[in-house]
Write a structure and sequence with these properties.
about 60% strand, mainly beta, about 100 residues, 1 helix, nine-stranded antiparallel β-sheet
Amino acid sequence: MSSAQMGCSCMFHSRNSTYLLAIGDEMMVRTAAGLQVCPITDAQLQSFGESDSEVPCGGVRVSIRDTGARILSPESDSSSAPSTLTVTQSGVTGTLDGDWGCAC
């Protein structure tokens, strides 16, 4: 990702690893096949955690669904929640439980 990116950053992490990172208008997805870096819109980023919408990235379809209460931290302009990451690639779907959070 470009160090020139500004704005909010969001990440999904589980088991001491980051599997999805979004900064500004770029998203990085880590799968068994490697890393994919793709553009992401604000609307796509906002859909994570709130719905079952999928975001495409380099042949991978990604969705994030909150599974617990979202913790808001106004003093740091951030939020996080326990979540499930779902990734579909070449017709195979996998899920991973972890945390989805954003800071602006």
